[in-house]
Design brief:
heterodimer; A: 111 residues; Immunoglobulin-like; 12 strands; B: 115 residues; 11 strands; 48% strand
Amino acid sequence: AQSVTQPDARVTVSEGASLQLRCKYSSSVTPYLFWYVQYPRQGLQLLLKYYSGDPVVQGVNGFEAEFSKSNSSFHLRKASVHWSDSAVYFCSNNYAQGLTFGLGTRVSVFP
Amino acid sequence: EAGVTQSPRYAVLQEGQAVSFWCDPISGHDTLYWYQQPRDQGPQLLVYFRDEAVIDNSQLPSDRFSAVRPKGTNSTLKIQSAKQGDTATYLCASSPFGGVTGQLYFGEGSKLTVL
């Protein structure tokens, strides 16, 4: 079965610090890969997506992610976080049956 | 452009009661998905449609769950005889072009609590 794994359930960072969220996917072929963010009491919003080509993709609000086929990974990064980045982040991949999501990583940014 | 609209936003039931959730996708999006998101977990696909046709409903938990999209636009997800284990947020999402891009547009969800 196709799946994604997010090994970190919670991450706490200081405002202004850098952030990296890990995601590993399992697939025999390169899937489409996505990062979504869920703010409190809201639906999921797309941060960025990877289909092919340049392994580093830019997203909204200063986020970027790097695809690695050799490591089966698609890690999310941000150079300097703001308190408004506190949310739950989901890695996902897409096959014929719609998106498969990881369990999510809850990010808390404190002053 | 209006986003995906869901109602009701919240529902509280006793076990054994029924509930229906309604979804209005983005205009022109042919593919519609229903996801179940238990607390502190990722969304899990229940069913999805292309136009009015069910493409995959193999993940609907049981015959207590049903979903329709009769005219290929709005959709209803119904839970009959709800159980405490059904407590979750139910997310509707839509996508254009048969969903081939993989990018989904989500509504804010309907949060169900079964007492």
